[in-house]
Amino acid sequence: MTVRQIAELAKVSPATVSLVLNNKPGVSAQRRREIQKLLEDNGFTIKSRAAKPAPLKQLYIVKCRILNEKDEFSIGLIDSIEEYANKAGYTVSILNIDKNTYEQKLSLLDYSMICGIIFFASEMPEDCLNYTLRTPVPTVYVDVFSDYHAINTVNADQRLISTIAAQHLFNLGHRKIGYLKSSPERGYLDQRFCYFKAALTRLGAELMPDCIFNINLLADNLDELILEAFRNIKDFPTAVFAESDVIAASCIQVLTNMGFSIPEDISVMAVDNTKICTITTPKLTSIDVNTHELGRLAFERIAQLIEDPGRPVLHSYVTPFLARRGSTANAKTGPS
């Protein structure tokens, strides 16, 4: 029996029989079963439907490292991304690049096997960022701000970090406030300083001009640098805000060695809420940038772009929170 004869018997067109014979869509389930039986009864073999290729489930996290410091922030962020990616069936690979190797390492990636890349861009120089714009798969950038490129970003809310810190110290009665900046400086830290200063101004307070210091976070003699900064101060602040937990921890030690009581004489607080906050004496008040939530949002965004690369560019911000401990307290008149 021919295809045409089977079509006449099934009261369908030969084209419909051909669709069933070749296991192609376009025929209802009931009609397909009827035609399949007729074909098989008459010696025809139904073509097996080709299995769809498994979707790519390989993500890359690319970390740009310039300062080569111990980075608890990145470790926590990677752990969070991997947690959510693995739950969704993705595997995650990690690639470290720097200002000298980014072009070579990124050019060697097999993009046909990668469905998306999350870039850790805290330390990414402009030429490296420009190079990554050529990436032929969906991308998300974490911890970077760009005024010049339409890129999908996930960041901690620097404005809110500064506002929470300023409000906390202000509510404790502090009006004489010092600031320890971290160097080498990164773009978001410059934002943090400006936002903190603006937040104090809105509250009716201000930073003490003689108590704003740049501290090299990578220096081996961190305590000595902080001691040198405070040594010649005539009018001490009642509170100090540091851009790093590491700097704040050293600050507590230096001020204690100078004879000050923390927080009775001088309150100290910082940003990041890393493990060091729990081993200082007293324990360090810090703003938690909510690393776990940053990782979740970064993964969710890259997954959305993998599903639909045409989605509009989004800048996402994660809300930080205050981890209050013993290093901050109500202000008094000030140390003598």
Any overview of this molecule?
The protein has helices at residues 3-10, 14-21, 29-41, 72-87, 102-107, 126-132, 158-171, 187-203, 222-231, 245-257, 291-307, and strands at residues 58-64, 91-97, 116-120, 139-142, 153-156, 176-183, 206-216, 239-242, 267-271, 285-288, 315-318, 321-323. It has 336 residues and is of the alpha/beta class. The strands form two sheets. It has a six-stranded parallel beta sheet. A six-stranded mixed beta sheet has the order 7-6-8-9-10-12, sandwiched between helices. Strand 8 (239-242), helix 10 (245-257) and strand 9 (267-271) form a beta-alpha-beta unit.
Instruction: Please provide the ordered H/E string of secondary-structure elements.
Output: HHHEHEHEHEEHEHEHEHEEHEE
Regions with pLDDT < 50 over 5+ consecutive residues?
Answer: none
Which class of secondary structure composition applies to the elements? alpha/beta
Radius of gyration: 30 Å
Strand order of the largest sheet: 2-1-3-4-5-11
* Helical percentage: 25-40%
Sum up the structure in keywords.
elongated; 336 residues; 12 strands; 6-stranded parallel sheet; 6-stranded mixed sheet; alpha/beta
In short:
The protein has 336 residues and is α/β, with parallel strands linked by helices. The protein is built from eleven helices and twelve strands. The protein has helices at residues 3-10, 14-21, 29-41, 72-87, 102-107, 126-132, 158-171, 187-203, 222-231, 245-257, 291-307, and strands spanning 58-64, 91-97, 116-120, 139-142, 153-156, 176-183, 206-216, 239-242, 267-271, 285-288, 315-318, 321-323.
